[in-house]
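Students often ask why we bother encoding 3D structure as a string. The short answer is that it lets us treat folding as translation between two languages. Here is a chain of 93 residues written in the first language.
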Amino acid sequence: MKASVILRAPFTFARAVWHAGVFLAEGRPVLTPQSIRKHRLSICETCCHNENSFCGLCACYTEAKTFVSSESCPDTPPRWAALTFVENQDTSP
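And here it is in the second language, the structure alphabet:
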């Protein structure tokens, strides 16, 4: 993984925490429903930027990133997006 990506990791993490806090404050679920989480992870697992379960674009641990409903893929264009309120209504464990 590139040093520039690793150096951005703390800022990427802080942004993720901020967005999760916004979702929480808005009353939106913070955790991704299981069916969507599995779909996101399957996309990450086959992505050319996946480096041993870490994203080569943002340095996030992909399994953790897919758990947070406010997160999105950092690729251009994104391979998966943050969830809307309607998508979060699926409460699968």
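Translate back mentally: The longest helix spans residues 3-25. Keep this in mind for the problem set.
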